[in-house]
Amino acid sequence: MKKVLIDCDPGIDDALALALAAGCADSLDIVGVTTVGGNVDLEFTTANALALREFLQMGDVPVTPGSAGALLRRTVRATAVHGDTGLGDVVLPAPRLGPSEGHAVDFIVETLKAAPGEITLVAVGPLSNIALAVRREPRIVQWARDLVIMGGSYTRGNHNPAAEFNMLADPEAAAIVFEAGWTVTMLGLDVTLRATLTSDVLERMRPLGRLADLLVPAAQFYGVVTAEGGPAIHDACAVAYVLDPGLFTCVPAVVNVETMGEFTRGMTVTDFRLRDRRANALVATAVDVPAFWDLVIGAYEKLATR
Ligand code: BDR
Ligand code: CA
């Protein structure tokens, strides 16, 4: 059983990633969900995580809110992509349970400290919470079994030509995280944009009962679904990597996050030529798309019949 702590900003693809994790409860132990301001304000990312915990039958997994904004920068949101409240036009039943006491940064530090070497951190939003946790307790770098992020790219951006959204939303946090001394597994746009949700995939979601009431409208809000293409469910790639790393090809690299550039802030400058340097990242360069969707849909089917 792999243990994961998921730091997220739901967010449509965050929601679909949580559903993937929830559907794999037989092989994945979700020890906590922490929220960060990102796609929408923290108030909404937390409310969505709470609603998803119950809708996805995640039991009593603690949901702990964290940082509302970037360490230094003005707030950047992605409401044009995820809607004003973060889940497009999906309205989930109001959750009965509230968030845990305390702050995500303390939760991350204490949870990793209690189980050194056991827990994989999966971060699929801006890296504000993870950076603050590194600063508060640098030993989390040793305590975490792994850090897997959705973010960055070595070829392009999506928020602008240079920067991927999670990196642009808090570039200083991303720089702290990449410089912390661990090896960051980076599932960036280079792979996530290949695993698009086509109409074939959507048809496999439609029969999934009440789960389909989340998946189908969320996917359609997220992008135009056709036989050839559709929206990329970025964050699900990070969870899929934890479940089955063999779905992805990953290459060691040195990744530096640009924090000063006028036009390139948030760019993940990726050098695959290590020379004598230690790689600070394992960068995903390829994904087996059919196998990825088989994993995702298989998990959703398990969840729908639970
Ligand atoms: C990333 O940015 C967010 O909008 C998504 O949730 C994902 O984490 C993709 O660039
Ligand atoms: Ca996200």
UniProtKB/TrEMBL annotation:
<dbReference type="GO" id="GO:0008477">
    <property type="term" value="F:purine nucleosidase activity"/>
</dbReference>
<keyword id="KW-0378">Hydrolase</keyword>
<keyword id="KW-0326">Glycosidase</keyword>
<protein>
    <submittedName>
        <fullName>Nucleoside hydrolase</fullName>
    </submittedName>
</protein>
<dbReference type="GO" id="GO:0006152">
    <property type="term" value="P:purine nucleoside catabolic process"/>
</dbReference>
<dbReference type="InterPro" id="IPR036452">
    <property type="entry name" value="Ribo_hydro-like"/>
</dbReference>
<feature type="domain" description="Inosine/uridine-preferring nucleoside hydrolase">
    <location>
        <begin position="4"/>
        <end position="294"/>
    </location>
</feature>
<dbReference type="InterPro" id="IPR023186">
    <property type="entry name" value="IUNH"/>
</dbReference>
<dbReference type="Pfam" id="PF01156">
    <property type="entry name" value="IU_nuc_hydro"/>
</dbReference>
<dbReference type="GO" id="GO:0005829">
    <property type="term" value="C:cytosol"/>
</dbReference>
<dbReference type="InterPro" id="IPR001910">
    <property type="entry name" value="Inosine/uridine_hydrolase_dom"/>
</dbReference>
